[in-house]
Amino acid sequence: MFSPDTTLDRAIAYALDNPGKRLRSRLTITTAELIAGEPVSAAIRVGDAIEYLHTYSLIHDDLPAMDDDDLRRGKPTLHRAFNEATAILAGDGLQALAFEQLASIDELSPSLRVELIRLVSRAVGLNGMVGGQALDLAAEGSQIDHAALTQIHRLKTGALIEAAVIGGALSANASEWQISALQRFAENIGLAFQVMDDVLDVSSDSAMLGKTAGKDAAAQKSTYVALLGLEGAREEAETLLSSALSALSPFAEAASDLVCLAQQMVRRER
Q1: Any residues with CB less than 8 A from the CB of 99 and at least 6 apart, and which?
Q2: With 0-12 CB in 10 A as exposed, 13-18 as middle and 19+ as buried, what is 188?
Q3: Distance, CA of 193 to CA of 45 (rounded, Å)
Q4: Which end of the chain is more exposed for a tag (fewer CB within 10 A), N or C?
Q5: Residue 50 near residue 22, CB atoms below 8 Å
Q6: By C-alpha distance, which of 201, 253, 267, 262 is closest to 34?
Q7: CA–CA separation, 57 vs 201, rounded Å?
Q8: How many angstroms from the chain centroid is the CA of residue 216?
Q9: pTM reported for the whole predicted model
Q10: Burial level of 99, CB count in 10 A (0-12/13-18/19+)?
Q11: Domains present along the chain, CATH in parentheses
């Protein structure tokens, strides 16, 4: 049971029972294994907390006051399957559950748990995902330059991806140089992922994506495709991927799993 209310409990289960690609938790777990050389149990729980936050953000993004979408992960969005009030409460509950989970990872020291909470709360807050979403909404229907678009997506999408990577590193007690290299990797792969999201919005269909295709253009959103063209956006994604993989070079073959995951994030069809 997530909640004492049966409808809210079913709504949260509905959102979590269709987990999507779980790229963020996979980044956390794979990064921790890169550092430790073996599975890290705490990283699994950190990854789950980050997925709770990602799911909450999708629930709220889909609401009529935001992106007003009907389809998510191949099924009706939560507010369509239930109602708007339940969707808002489910998102709020998942956000709180994420921080409860981070605070309860007994394998990690209290100081490390506080550091993880600081990292993740910043990633989803005013100087992260929420701030990026506000900038994105403000830019609808207007033309912005490359720097402004990059700022939006480093905050809206990239910040939580960066937290997923660094959260995995912290879970495995990474050194300063390791965290520095992984930070460069995360900044580039987070942005590359968003560029490909923009590409797929115009080059794929709703059945393949599991969400409404062409939504960005219909909403007059600022995207990399609108700014650079379809092929230009693809080239941008590849350039960012190359920079991300270059940041992993100090880890040599130990980073092979993380390299493969990064390539999957960019060279995907949905």
Answers
A1: 49, 117, 120, 121
A2: buried
A3: 23
A4: N
A5: no
A6: 253
A7: 19
A8: 18
A9: 0.94
A10: middle
A11: 6-265 (1.10.600.10)
Query: Which tokens is 218 given?
Result: 């219909």
122: its two tokens: 């910043």
| Tens digit of pLDDT at every position of the chain (270 positions) | 788 999 999 999 999 997 778 999 999 999 999 999 999 999 999 999 999 999 999 999 999 999 899 999 889 999 999 999 999 999 999 999 999 999 999 999 999 999 999 999 999 999 999 999 999 999 988 889 999 999 999 999 999 999 999 999 999 999 999 999 999 999 999 999 999 999 998 887 665 666 565 566 656 778 999 999 999 999 999 999 999 999 999 999 999 999 999 999 999 877
Both tokens assigned to 60: 């709220």
Alpha-carbon distance of 215 to 201, in angstroms, equals: 7
- In the numeric block, which tokens belong to residue 127? 């100087």
Distance CA 169, CA 52 (A): 19
